Amino acid sequence: TDTKDFTVSSASLTNNTRVTAPVTFDFQSGEQNWNGVPMWYLTDVDLANRQSQVWLFNDLYNPEIGSGNLGDPHIGGGDLTSPPIVIPATGYYLRFDYFYETESFFKFWDHRWIQVSVDGGDFENLYQFSMDADNTWLSSQAINLSAYAGKTIRLRFHMDIVDQFENGGYGWLVDNISINTIAPVSCNDPEPNDTIGQATAFPQSG
What confidence tens digit (pLDDT) does each residue in 169-183 have? Predict the structure, then answer.
């Protein structure tokens, strides 16, 4: 049986200056101390009707046509990592805009993860995207960061292509990342007309 040897070397993230939430990264002035490794690129090409600088996960990216291939047999994925961010208190939420075109929206293919590192620790999975609409720009749900109050975190967009098959398309695009105290709308608030007796009557026509 043929065998191949490879070496895994240790590495560390750049020690960027900390920022304190609330904070917004729109990337119009550049990388804003985010670090992308293969296959993440910051591009200002008009991708998917988005005339804006965005982070793009894609291999063999061709800026002339704005598309490429995710199926590199030598690269299994890549990470887009934030600078250190101080979360000063509870009640902070992460939001961002994104677009993706991958093999499938099921969680078993082409994994799309949000990961978090706390106070310089290892990155751990925070949220996996799946079953969301592809080929359109979406705004993420509000991801509660209250568990990290008083901590310094680094966020990471982790893409794992799993294998090199059936991986055409744009990949994963990320833009307008924000952390603020705007709480999501609660669905548990009582409605003023939530019974038959309180129901609002609609006028009849004709």
Answer: 677 889 999 999 999
DSSP state, residue 6: -
Q: DSSP secondary-structure letter at 70? A: S
| SS3 category, 21 | coil
Whole-structure pTM value: 0.76
In angstroms, the CA 165 to CA 71 distance is: 6
Positive/negative CA dihedral, 98, 101, 102, 107: positive
Encoded tokens for 25: 């990264």
Confidence of residue 200 (pLDDT cuts 50, 70, 90): confident
**How many residues make up the chain in this entry?**
206
